[in-house]
Design brief:
The chain is α+β, with helices and mostly antiparallel strands. It has one domain (about 5-50). It has one helix and two strands. It has a two-stranded antiparallel sheet.
């Protein structure tokens, strides 16, 4: 199984930058939905070479605790 990484940077002004690595194809966008729910509005997005690679089957389970 490929190693997947999320690099999260929070700037002094409160803006958040998330870099996703290890997902092939459009699956990276599915993974980013998790962070969009937490952080909120996406102001910009850039795609890496992995986005254009053939997709793989990835399942994401989210459990919310209130």
């Amino acid at each position: 199984m490929p190693q997947r990484e999320f690099e999260i940077t929070i700037a002094p002004d409160g803006s958040v930058e998330v870099q996703v690595q290890g997902y092939k194809g459009r699956r990276c966008l599915d993974a980013m939905k998790i962070f969009q729910e937490i952080v909120g509005e996406v102001k910009s997005q850039s795609l890496t070479h992995e986005y254009y690679a053939p997709e793989e089957d990835v399942r994401i389970n989210i459990e919310r605790q209130h």
